[in-house]
Protein backbone atom coordinates (compact mmCIF):
# COMPACT_ATOMS: atom_id res chain seq x y z
CA UNK A 1 0.00 0.00 0.00
CA UNK A 2 1.38 3.41 -0.99
CA UNK A 3 1.90 6.12 1.59
CA UNK A 4 -0.40 9.12 1.53
CA UNK A 5 0.68 11.50 -1.27
CA UNK A 6 1.16 14.35 1.23
CA UNK A 7 3.17 12.31 3.76
CA UNK A 8 6.33 14.26 2.85
CA UNK A 9 4.61 17.47 4.09
CA UNK A 10 2.94 16.17 7.27
CA UNK A 11 3.84 17.53 10.70
CA UNK A 12 3.06 15.38 13.76
CA UNK A 13 2.38 16.51 17.31
CA UNK A 14 4.93 15.24 19.84
CA UNK A 15 3.44 17.00 22.84
CA UNK A 16 1.72 20.24 23.69
CA UNK A 17 -0.03 22.32 26.25
CA UNK A 18 -2.74 24.91 26.51
CA UNK A 19 -0.96 28.17 27.38
CA UNK A 20 -3.99 30.46 27.52
CA UNK A 21 -7.72 29.90 27.87
CA UNK A 22 -9.96 32.92 27.44
CA UNK A 23 -13.70 33.40 27.10
CA UNK A 24 -13.80 31.71 23.70
CA UNK A 25 -10.21 31.66 22.38
CA UNK A 26 -7.54 29.22 23.48
CA UNK A 27 -3.84 29.36 22.65
CA UNK A 28 -2.01 26.08 22.19
CA UNK A 29 1.78 25.56 22.09
CA UNK A 30 2.83 22.26 20.59
CA UNK A 31 6.14 20.58 19.90
CA UNK A 32 5.90 18.91 16.51
CA UNK A 33 7.99 16.58 14.39
CA UNK A 34 8.77 17.93 10.93
CA UNK A 35 8.79 15.70 7.83
CA UNK A 36 12.60 15.50 8.05
CA UNK A 37 12.44 14.23 11.65
CA UNK A 38 13.54 17.46 13.34
CA UNK A 39 11.38 19.11 15.99
CA UNK A 40 9.85 22.59 16.00
CA UNK A 41 7.29 24.56 17.98
CA UNK A 42 3.87 25.59 16.69
CA UNK A 43 1.66 28.10 18.49
CA UNK A 44 -1.91 28.41 17.36
CA UNK A 45 -5.28 29.76 18.36
CA UNK A 46 -8.09 27.30 18.86
CA UNK A 47 -11.45 28.80 17.86
CA UNK A 48 -14.93 27.20 17.95
CA UNK A 49 -15.79 28.39 14.43
CA UNK A 50 -18.24 30.93 13.12
CA UNK A 51 -20.88 31.58 10.50
CA UNK A 52 -21.12 34.35 7.91
CA UNK A 53 -24.41 35.46 6.39
CA UNK A 54 -24.72 36.97 2.89
CA UNK A 55 -28.11 38.74 3.16
CA UNK A 56 -29.29 39.36 -0.42
CA UNK A 57 -32.37 41.49 -1.13
CA UNK A 58 -34.62 40.87 -4.15
CA UNK A 59 -33.25 44.02 -5.84
CA UNK A 60 -29.68 42.63 -5.70
CA UNK A 61 -28.51 44.81 -2.82
CA UNK A 62 -26.97 43.42 0.35
CA UNK A 63 -27.26 44.05 4.07
CA UNK A 64 -24.00 45.11 5.71
CA UNK A 65 -22.73 46.08 9.14
CA UNK A 66 -20.33 48.72 10.37
CA UNK A 67 -18.57 47.57 13.54
CA UNK A 68 -15.55 48.75 15.54
CA UNK A 69 -12.89 46.06 15.81
CA UNK A 70 -10.56 46.59 18.75
CA UNK A 71 -7.42 44.76 17.54
CA UNK A 72 -7.12 47.12 14.55
CA UNK A 73 -8.69 50.17 16.26
CA UNK A 74 -11.10 50.98 13.46
CA UNK A 75 -14.62 50.49 12.12
CA UNK A 76 -14.96 47.76 9.48
CA UNK A 77 -17.67 47.04 6.93
CA UNK A 78 -18.70 43.42 7.27
CA UNK A 79 -21.36 40.87 6.46
CA UNK A 80 -23.23 39.70 9.58
CA UNK A 81 -21.37 36.89 11.33
CA UNK A 82 -20.99 35.22 14.70
CA UNK A 83 -19.42 32.49 16.77
CA UNK A 84 -20.93 29.01 16.79
CA UNK A 85 -21.93 27.97 20.31
CA UNK A 86 -20.92 24.51 21.53
CA UNK A 87 -23.21 21.90 19.99
CA UNK A 88 -25.11 24.50 17.94
CA UNK A 89 -26.26 23.59 14.43
CA UNK A 90 -24.39 25.88 12.03
CA UNK A 91 -27.45 26.92 10.01
CA UNK A 92 -29.40 27.65 13.20
CA UNK A 93 -26.46 29.77 14.34
CA UNK A 94 -26.60 31.73 11.07
CA UNK A 95 -30.34 32.33 11.49
CA UNK A 96 -29.81 33.43 15.10
CA UNK A 97 -26.94 35.78 14.29
CA UNK A 98 -28.81 37.44 11.41
CA UNK A 99 -31.85 38.03 13.64
CA UNK A 100 -29.85 39.23 16.66
CA UNK A 101 -27.45 41.55 14.82
CA UNK A 102 -29.74 42.96 12.14
CA UNK A 103 -33.33 42.13 13.11
CA UNK A 104 -33.82 40.46 9.73
CA UNK A 105 -35.12 36.96 9.10
CA UNK A 106 -34.89 35.05 5.83
CA UNK A 107 -37.13 32.45 4.20
CA UNK A 108 -34.48 30.96 1.90
CA UNK A 109 -31.11 29.72 3.22
CA UNK A 110 -28.37 28.04 1.20
CA UNK A 111 -24.93 26.86 2.28
CA UNK A 112 -22.22 28.52 0.17
CA UNK A 113 -18.86 27.20 1.41
CA UNK A 114 -16.47 26.86 4.34
CA UNK A 115 -13.39 29.06 4.53
CA UNK A 116 -10.34 29.00 6.81
CA UNK A 117 -9.32 32.59 7.37
CA UNK A 118 -6.05 32.29 9.31
CA UNK A 119 -4.50 28.91 8.50
CA UNK A 120 -0.99 29.80 9.70
CA UNK A 121 -2.02 30.41 13.31
CA UNK A 122 -5.64 29.36 13.90
CA UNK A 123 -8.01 26.44 13.36
CA UNK A 124 -10.94 28.84 12.87
CA UNK A 125 -13.38 28.02 10.10
CA UNK A 126 -16.29 30.07 8.81
CA UNK A 127 -19.37 28.54 7.21
CA UNK A 128 -20.90 30.98 4.73
CA UNK A 129 -24.66 31.02 4.07
CA UNK A 130 -26.71 32.91 1.51
CA UNK A 131 -29.93 34.35 2.98
CA UNK A 132 -32.79 35.49 0.73
CA UNK A 133 -36.43 36.38 1.30
CA UNK A 134 -35.44 38.98 3.89
CA UNK A 135 -37.93 40.57 6.29
CA UNK A 136 -37.00 43.36 8.71
CA UNK A 137 -37.62 42.99 12.43
CA UNK A 138 -36.22 44.03 15.78
CA UNK A 139 -32.53 43.57 16.61
CA UNK A 140 -31.42 41.88 19.83
CA UNK A 141 -27.74 42.76 20.13
CA UNK A 142 -25.61 40.96 22.71
CA UNK A 143 -24.43 42.94 25.72
CA UNK A 144 -21.36 44.91 24.67
CA UNK A 145 -22.20 44.63 20.96
CA UNK A 146 -22.52 47.90 19.02
CA UNK A 147 -22.98 48.03 15.26
CA UNK A 148 -24.82 49.87 12.51
CA UNK A 149 -26.60 48.12 9.64
CA UNK A 150 -27.26 49.43 6.16
CA UNK A 151 -28.34 48.32 2.71
CA UNK A 152 -26.03 48.80 -0.30
CA UNK A 153 -25.88 47.69 -3.93
CA UNK A 154 -23.51 44.75 -4.42
CA UNK A 155 -21.71 46.84 -7.05
CA UNK A 156 -20.92 49.45 -4.38
CA UNK A 157 -19.55 46.79 -2.02
CA UNK A 158 -17.39 45.35 -4.81
CA UNK A 159 -16.05 48.84 -5.60
CA UNK A 160 -15.17 49.33 -1.91
CA UNK A 161 -13.33 46.00 -1.99
CA UNK A 162 -11.47 47.08 -5.15
CA UNK A 163 -10.48 50.39 -3.53
CA UNK A 164 -9.25 48.70 -0.33
CA UNK A 165 -12.02 50.25 1.80
CA UNK A 166 -13.44 46.81 2.65
CA UNK A 167 -10.67 44.49 3.83
CA UNK A 168 -12.46 42.02 6.11
CA UNK A 169 -11.67 38.63 4.53
CA UNK A 170 -15.09 37.05 5.08
CA UNK A 171 -16.78 40.05 3.49
CA UNK A 172 -14.39 40.18 0.53
CA UNK A 173 -14.89 36.46 -0.16
CA UNK A 174 -18.65 36.74 0.36
CA UNK A 175 -18.85 39.66 -2.09
CA UNK A 176 -16.97 37.68 -4.75
CA UNK A 177 -19.21 34.65 -4.21
CA UNK A 178 -22.33 36.81 -4.54
CA UNK A 179 -21.07 38.36 -7.75
CA UNK A 180 -20.49 34.90 -9.26
CA UNK A 181 -23.86 33.57 -8.01
CA UNK A 182 -25.84 36.56 -9.31
CA UNK A 183 -24.07 36.40 -12.69
CA UNK A 184 -24.86 32.69 -12.94
CA UNK A 185 -21.18 31.74 -13.11
CA UNK A 186 -21.20 29.67 -9.92
CA UNK A 187 -23.94 27.49 -8.51
CA UNK A 188 -24.30 26.54 -4.88
CA UNK A 189 -23.82 22.99 -3.62
CA UNK A 190 -27.00 20.92 -3.36
CA UNK A 191 -28.45 20.41 0.10
UniProtKB/TrEMBL annotation:
Its cofactor is Mg(2+). Keywords: Hydrolase. Transmembrane segments: none annotated. Residues 45-174 form the Nudix hydrolase domain. Gene3D superfamilies: Nucleoside Triphosphate Pyrophosphohydrolase. SUPFAM superfamilies: Nudix. InterPro entries: NUDIX_hydrolase-like_dom_sf, NUDIX_hydrolase_CS, NUDIX_hydrolase_dom. CDD domains: NUDIX_ADPRase_NudF. It catalyses: GDP-alpha-D-mannose + H2O = alpha-D-mannose 1-phosphate + GMP + 2 H(+). Signal peptide: none annotated. Belongs to the Nudix hydrolase family. NudK subfamily. This is GDP-mannose pyrophosphatase. It comes from Herbaspirillum hiltneri N3.
Amino acid sequence: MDAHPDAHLKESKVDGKLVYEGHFLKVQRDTIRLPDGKQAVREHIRHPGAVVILPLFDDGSVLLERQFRYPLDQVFIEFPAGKIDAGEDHLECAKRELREETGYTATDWQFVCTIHNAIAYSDEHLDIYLARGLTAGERKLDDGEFLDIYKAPLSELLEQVRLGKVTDVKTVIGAFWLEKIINGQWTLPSA
